[in-house]
Amino acid sequence: MPFKNYYTFQSTHVGTSRFNVNSASWDRLWLAYRPTGFSTKSAPKIVSGYKKAGAFTSKVTNTAIATATEQDIGVPQYDVGGVFDTNKERYISNYFNFTEQETSNSVATFFQLQVNSANIPAYRMTTPEAFAMTMGSIDGYNKHNNLTLDQYRKNFFVQCYRFCLPESDGNRLASGLVFSPQQVQVGA
């Protein structure tokens, strides 16, 4: 029976975050970035692309029979047709709203891990590359549940680094990276 062990680290990221892990087989590393006031109580946020103010109204079509038809009011942020099923309202709480934390407006943000003095990946990834890597690192990712790059940056900015073989989670394999008690450095 496979044994799963989870480690959690939390810190304020200021360009580089360091943490230690000692594991015989490390399958994945998940990184989540939240704004400073994530634990402040506030109203839910509208997910990017969805309707800002949606509603249904009734319109009488035949006064003699008094039949009513519903009309959908509200326009999605992306387009009227509701690309990627955004023709509805969707909200996310402040606590679970993960946003891209840019260092500055003029300098692009890059992502790279340094594990036991080795860079993973070997180059500094851009945000679209991190998005593609995350979607490829998840077993059972539902390809029909589309997510735009804008939604990823503003509402679902998490990263997943896969260190194990694809579809090895259900098997009794130690296919992940082996770590000695050295520091892992996350650079952005």
Low-pLDDT regions: none
Q: What's the mean pLDDT score?
A: 76
Give the overall shape. Answer: elongated
**H/E order of the elements?**
EEEEEEEEHHEE
Number of strands: 10
Which range best describes the helical content: under 10%, 10-25%, 25-40%, 40-55%, 55-70% or over 70%? under 10%
Gyration radius, to the nearest Å? 22 Å
Report the major sheet: 4 strands, antiparallel
Description:
The protein is mainly beta. The chain folds into 2 domains: 16-41 and 94-187, no CATH class; 48-85, no CATH class. It has 2 helices and 10 strands; from the N terminus they run ββββββββααββ. The protein has helices spanning 127-137, 149-154; strands spanning 16-26, 28-32, 45-46, 55-62, 67-73, 91-92, 111-115, 118-125, 158-162, 177-187. The protein has a 4-stranded antiparallel β-sheet with strand order 1-10-7-8. A two-stranded antiparallel ribbon has the order 2-9. Strands 3-6 form a two-stranded antiparallel ribbon. The longest helix has 11 residues, at 127-137. The mean pLDDT is 76.
Write the layout of secondary structure elements.
Elements: E1 16-26, E2 28-32, E3 45-46, E4 55-62, E5 67-73, E6 91-92, E7 111-115, E8 118-125, H1 127-137, H2 149-154, E9 158-162, E10 177-187
Antiparallel strand pairs: 1-10, 2-9, 3-6, 4-5, 7-8, 7-10
Keywords:
single chain; about 190 residues; mainly beta; 2 domains; four-stranded antiparallel sheet; two-stranded antiparallel sheet
Summed up:
With 188 residues, the chain is mainly beta. The protein folds into 2 domains: 16-41 and 94-187, no CATH class; 48-85, no CATH class. The protein contains 2 helices and 10 strands; from the N terminus they run ββββββββααββ.
